[in-house]
TrEMBL record:
Belongs to the pyrroline-5-carboxylate reductase family. Pathway: Amino-acid biosynthesis; L-proline biosynthesis; L-proline from L-glutamate 5-semialdehyde: step 1/1. It comes from Simiduia aestuariiviva. It is found in: Cytoplasm. This is Pyrroline-5-carboxylate reductase. NADPH binds at N56. Pfam families: F420_oxidored (PF03807), P5CR_dimer (PF14748).
Amino acid sequence: MSYRIGFIGAGNMSAAILGGMVKQGVAPDRIIASNRSTPKLEALAGEFGIQTTTDNHQAAGADVVVLSVKPQMMKDVCLDLAPHLDHKPTIVTVAAGIPMASYEQWLGRDHAIVRCMPNTPSLVGKGASGLFANAQVTDAQRQRVESMMQAVGITAWVEQEALIDAVIAVAGSAPAYFFLMMEAMIDQGEAMGLDRATARALTLQTAAGAAELAATADVPVDELRRRVMSPGGTTEQAVFSFEADDIRAIVARAMTRCANRAAEMAQEMGN
């Protein structure tokens, strides 16, 4: 890789992305991260050998600039960086809730900008990221961003910005749905007499195994479900209970509320 990547912000998501890149063979001297907190920078430099700085302008001199600061800080950060982007880097934002129009207003409409919606499993290399590019992003720039985010999981491009809200509902917020299901199963396992450690271990291994099986199987997930459901058996009773409580409608309502709130936040943050 001949281009340089600069991270504005050195939080968990930046650490996950740049760490994944280094593990995939990207030279650490091609990566620079800036942050106001020097302990975070020292930790990143110590673990990955990257360059660090407390000067955002220095990090913004890279060919790809990743904006990874809190949404409420983003406007001030962008306005401060705008005069230092004459070299026209590819700008990638991993902040939730800020529409493309705001970035174009703060940075300039002639910049190539990609909105990226990663999720927390990126921290363990199992992420899923939705990507939306403005009209200035070239195919080569798309490939750079895609390569960067694939260091921590899979990527999916959407061609309409509004679909980022669907990505949030399906992937960005979705780890919490599964965590809630795991929590409920662990609690019930303990209520049924298992010690909590055992209930936890069995639940988490089953969740991981089910996800891996679904990802590698050559049949859709509904067929995998049917294969576990022996007629008159135990699994069938559990699934019948879920269906009787209309689990599909529960999931649909939850995901719709998630997407609606994402759209509301984009409007709020854009004002």
